[in-house]
Amino acid sequence: MNNIIDLQKNTGIDFKDASLLTLALTHSSYVNENPAIAPNSNERLEFLGDAILDMVIAEELYFKYPDYNEGELTGLRAILVCSTTLGNIARGIGLGDSLLLGKGEEASGGRAKEANLAGAIEALIAAVYLDRGLVPARNFIIKLFETEMKKLNEQEMCMDYKSRLQHIFQSKKGSNKETPYYNIIEATGPDHKHIFTAEVKVGDTLLGTGHGKSKKIAETEAARIALEKLK
Fold first, then answer.
1. 153 has pLDDT over 90
2. Among this protein's residues, is 191 annotated catalytic?
3. What is the residue extent of each domain of the chain?
């Protein structure tokens, strides 16, 4: 209970319907082990929160970067809503400590898993929306993503990460120019909410690995990590 109270303090949200907050924190593994106590998991809320998050972030980017085309805006959004970013934000508010997990998931480090944290942050967004409405939910998202949004300065993000990575290798001198290519090496989770793992390579050299709720987001995250290594 104390963890949930701390979470409300960290987020600045005092829920009118506390059951929505509890539901947002309920992992499917907890439901499997405690069906009488918790008949439902946070997966439906996660579905709703995902859509709300995409809409709010898209709107913010649309007005923040008026000169960017559709592809560039899509690249920025992919960076912001990837599992890595969502996981970092979740850790920042102590969300992992508040999750309701089954014993097996707890023992396997479930509180630190990015898939669990990303899903819970999306479920939390939906819970705020249902409890308070769209405007408070939008303000909540903007507050959560404030630091990440500030990182998207125009000099760094004039092209999306995949384009920037490809440009680096195409601009090399000499005839032996290799192009980065991507592989989806894993897809975990149920059919309706896969978490994909992508790797980007040049030849046989692994440049980076990324995770995301779509193949495109996972590839973008892999490219971002590759660029960080190349720096």
1. no
2. no
3. 2-150, 161-230
Stated length of the chain: 231
The domain at 2-150 falls in which architecture?
Answer: Orthogonal Bundle (1.10)
122 is catalytic: yes
- Mean of pLDDT over the chain: 87
Task: List the beta strands (DSSP E) in the chain.
Answer: 181-188, 195-202, 205-212
Q: Tell me the pTM.
A: 0.70
Given 43, 46, 60, 122, which residue is catalytic?
A: 122
**Residues contacting 194, CB < 8 A, separation 6+:** 187, 188, 213
From 43, 46, 50, 105, the catalytic residue? 50
Half-sphere exposure of residue 94, counting CA atoms within 13 Å on the CB side?
13
Instruction: Calculate mean pLDDT across residues 188-217.
Output: 87
In this prediction, what percent of the chain has a pLDDT beyond 70?
Answer: 92
Q: 145-182: string of b/e by CB count within 10 Å (b at 16+)?
A: beebbeebeeeebeebbbebbbeeeeeeeeeeeeebeb
